[in-house]
Design a protein that fits this description.
The complex is a heterodimer of chains A (165) and B (573).
Chain A: H1 13-23, H2 33-44, H3 49-59, H4 63-72, E1 84-89, H5 92-110, E2 123-128, E3 140-142, E4 145-147, H6 152-164
Parallel strand pairs in A: 1-2
Antiparallel strand pairs in A: 1-3, 3-4
Helix pairs in contact in A: 1-2, 1-3, 2-3, 3-4
Chain B: E1 4-8, E2 11-15, H1 21-27, E3 51-54, E4 61-62, E5 73-75, H2 79-93, H3 110-117, E6 141-143, H4 153-161, E7 168-170, E8 177-179, H5 196-200, E9 206-208, H6 212-219, E10 225-230, H7 251-261, E11 265-268, H8 269-290, E12 296-297, H9 302-311, H10 325-341, E13 348-354, H11 358-364, E14 378-381, H12 382-391, H13 413-416, H14 423-437, E15 455-462, E16 465-473, H15 475-486, E17 493-497, H16 515-530, H17 541-551, H18 557-563
Helix pairs in contact in B: 8-10, 8-14
Classes of the chains: A alpha+beta (165), B alpha/beta (573).
Chain lengths: 165, 573
């Protein structure tokens, strides 16, 4: 599928139509706000202002409330994510086994901070609190792939692999 | 249903089922401190100040959201209750700037008062403070998120009473902020500037834009001829700034105080309220006669105007083209009055004293300059005037009563009731009846359109034709009426006031403004009407002279040029 954004950073018509399709069955139903936002994000990748306005008008929810929900839940993001989504577990077990060093490493190597995206749009990074794989800590996931017992050299290798793709 | 028996502080109390512990305690004369609680509007148990001990409950309970039950035993004044309330307040204060001495709400702040009442004598918790910057983008209101305690009172009024939803809680945890969506500036969103948020804010997190400095400056300028107009609702509330009762009619002392401040002429917006009736009444009769757009909807309330521009732009043709009385006054002061007084229009400065924050925005609308200059230069709220009088050392309650200046200070009882919901309708009916029937009204009081009920309807027989009238106040009620019109209800004339109670409950009025205060001010308005010699707008001799000497006739060429306006559709987002 084509890129979601035009060169002046507006959502393309194709994606705006997709959002309209998602909203259609929920028109005038404020109670489905989170579900609709979730679906919209899974298709568009993020929730820019124009998507939130469409959701607000479509469901009949004030925009202040839509943004209130989007800004409350960390699973919603208003900026585009990278092609590959990295998460580092910062739960207690992973943290004590070196998650912090991995976070620092991405900052040093790729100028990538939690919540951010690399300049080339390849990677974005988020922190999570425990994915239930404490025995494998520190755990790093890239897209749907889980990497356990990650250390400096291993992380460099993982990144290199995705960069080649 | 049978009542519920409970014990509060060893007292036997009997209340209706569904009552909360807080209400039950109040009925029994027991005071429980509250902070986030706003009766019927914000009852969310968020601030944890109203905690009480309920026998058998594991923890202290927030009394504002705890319903009573049979045999309940409540204690409101134990060591634990006092300590925990205090600790909760100390935690709230840990993220509140200690700037009371220079704060605009100093001595009128619920947080400050509560800190005193709960016996807080030191700042126990010092740590990270919220760092959001104040928002000065609005013409009417200033948001200062640093002073916000996140009680949600403003957002619940904006959402549930006004149904504007300009602001809401955004972000999360320590970063939570009450703001428009995307933290956009208040001046750039669909906020209608009604200021109901500022009325209910316990601190100074939202307050009126203070323009007193601009007025002090022109008062000290000998080259300026500074005139002032006072809105109808200010005379029944200004006394509250000096410890007098709400609803005390202080017209004469208000005039005296303004003269003492140094205004060259003290005029009355009631004069142009009477003029509005002449223009709008004739507009109504013309629309009925010529098959114009009906129902006709009043246009006095600038919060309401901005609301319909944002939310119902398709209904703008229903609005009367009449400017509000404030703006009519400005246009006449800078044309008719300067001509009569032999003053250069560039040298006159028009100040308004309004119960309203939205009037500040209205005065700055670029189309409000039909005199060739900005019609109204500065708008001050009742609260700002109170502050100026204090600063000038004027002892309000000791003043002797004085009269307004002629000609723009002459008015009728019909003009003064503009200050209350239903007043414009009643004033219009008094005049329309007599203009249409040619007979004298047997009874002047239209009780059907008075009072605090949200939507009021009345039908009046005018020479065989029935005129269906409806009155709404508060934008939530206005929305209901607009939906009725869309659904095909046959009305001829609709009065809408943005604020609950009308202007007596305006966003620029003294704090507190609650239901009880609104009722008292409303009674004051009708007392003032009763006390007037002339009580019908078309009998105002100064208005008659204005038409004879200057305007010609209602809806004439000059009226259209100076007293009428147009509206613009605005985006909702």
């Amino acid at each position: 599928m084509a890129e979601a954004l035009t060169c002046d950073n507006r959502l393309t018509q194709e994606y705006l139509d997709i959002v309209d399709e998602i909203i259609k069955p929920y028109r005038g139903q404020p109670g489905n706000l989170i579900q609709v936002l979730h679906k919209a994000q899974s298709r568009v990748g993020f929730l820019p202002r124009e998507v939130q306005v469409k959701v607000a008008d479509g469901l009949g929810v004030p925009l202040t409330k839509v943004y209130g929900v989007v800004s409350f839940y960390s699973l919603f993001n208003t900026l585009p994510k990278g092609k590959h989504k990295i998460t580092i577990c910062a739960g207690t077990a992973c943290y004590v086994r070196g998650a912090k060093q991995l976070i620092n490493q991405l900052k040093e190597d790729m100028d990538l901070e939690p919540g951010g995206t690399t300049e080339d749009g390849m990677f974005s990074l988020d922190l999570v609190r425990c994915i239930g794989a404490c025995g494998l800590g520190p755990v790093v996931t890239v897209d749907d792939e889980v990497h356990g017992k990650v250390h400096r050299e291993k992380l460099t290798k993982i990144m290199a692999k995705y960069k080649e793709e | 249903m049978s009542s519920i028996n409970l014990t509060i502080d060893n007292m036997q109390v009997q209340v209706e089922p569904g009552t909360t512990v807080l209400q039950a305690a109040r009925q029994a004369g027991i005071k429980i401190p509250t902070l986030c609680y706003l009766e019927e509007i914000n009852e969310i148990g968020a601030c944890r100040i109203c905690l009480v001990e309920v026998q058998g409950a594991r923890t202290l309970q927030a009394s504002c959201v705890t319903p009573v039950s049979e045999g309940m035993v409540v204690r409101t004044n134990t060591t634990q209750v006092r300590q925990v309330r205090k600790m909760n307040l100390e935690l709230i204060m840990s993220n509140h700037p200690q700037e009371c001495l220079t704060c605009p709400r100093s001595t009128n702040c619920e947080l400050q008062q509560l800190a005193s009442e709960l016996g807080i004598t030191e700042i126990k918790f010092a740590g990270e403070m919220s760092s959001y910057e104040p928002d000065y983008s609005s013409a009417s209101l200033v948001r200062d998120p640093r002073k916000c305690i996140l009680c949600r009172r403003c957002t619940s009024v904006c959402e549930n009473v006004q149904k504007v939803n300009a602001i809401g809680p955004q972000e999360r945890g320590f970063n939570t902020i009450v703001a428009p969506a995307f933290l956009e500036p208040l001046g750039e969103v669909s906020c209608v500037n009604c200021g109901q948020c500022a009325l209910v804010c316990p601190t100074a997190a939202i307050h009126e834009k203070d323009q007193t400095a601009e007025v002090w400056k022109v008062l000290a300028d000998p080259k300026k001829h500074v005139v002032v107009q006072t809105a109808p609702a200010v005379r029944v509330s200004i006394g509250e700034m000096f410890g007098l009762q709400p609803g005390s009619v202080e017209t004469g002392r208000l005039v005296a105080a303004l003269r003492k401040l140094g205004f060259d002429r003290v005029f009355d917006t009631d004069f142009t309220a009477d003029l509005t009736i002449m223009e709008e009444g004739n507009e109504l009769l013309q629309r009925i006669k010529e098959g114009g757009k009906l129902p006709l909807v009043t246009s006095c309330s600038p919060g309401w105007i901005k609301y319909i521009e944002h939310f119902y732009p398709e209904m703008l043709p229903h609005l009367s083209t009449c400017k509000s009385p404030q703006q009519m006054f400005g246009a006449l002061a800078k044309s008719y009055y300067v001509e009569q007084a032999g003053i250069d229009a560039a040298d006159i400065f028009v100040v308004s004293i309004m119960p309203c924050t939205a009037k500040k925005f209205e005065a700055g609308r670029h189309e409000m300059a039909d005199s060739g200059h900005q019609d109204v230069d500065v708008v001050l709220t009742t609260r700002e005037l109170g502050k100026m009088l204090r600063e000038a050392g004027i002892e309000f309650s000791a003043l002797a009563e004085e009269e307004y200046d002629a000609p723009l200070g002459m008015s009728t009882g019909a003009g003064v009731i503009f200050g209350s919901t239903g007043g414009v309708m009643e004033a219009a009916l008094r005049t329309a009846y007599e203009l249409v029937t040619g007979e004298t009204l047997p009874a002047l009081d239209f009780h059907a359109v008075r009072g605090l009920e949200g939507v009021k309807e009345a039908s009046v027989n005018l020479n065989g034709t029935t005129l269906n009238a409806v009155v709404a106040h508060g934008l939530g009620n206005a929305m209901d009426v607009l939906e009725r019109v869309k659904a095909g209800h046959q009305y001829h004339f609709i009065e809408i006031m943005c604020c609950p109670g009308g202007c007596i409950g305006g966003g620029g009025q003294p704090i507190p403004t609650n239901r009880e205060v609104r009722e008292k001010r409303m009674a004051g308005i009708y007392n003032a009407d009763q006390g007037m010699v002339i009580r019908k707008s078309h009998e105002n001799p100064a208005v008659q002279a204005l038409y004879k000497d200057f305007l010609g006739e209602p809806l004439g060429h000059k009226s259209h040029q100076l007293l009428h306006t147009h509206y613009m559709p605005r985006n909702r987002h």
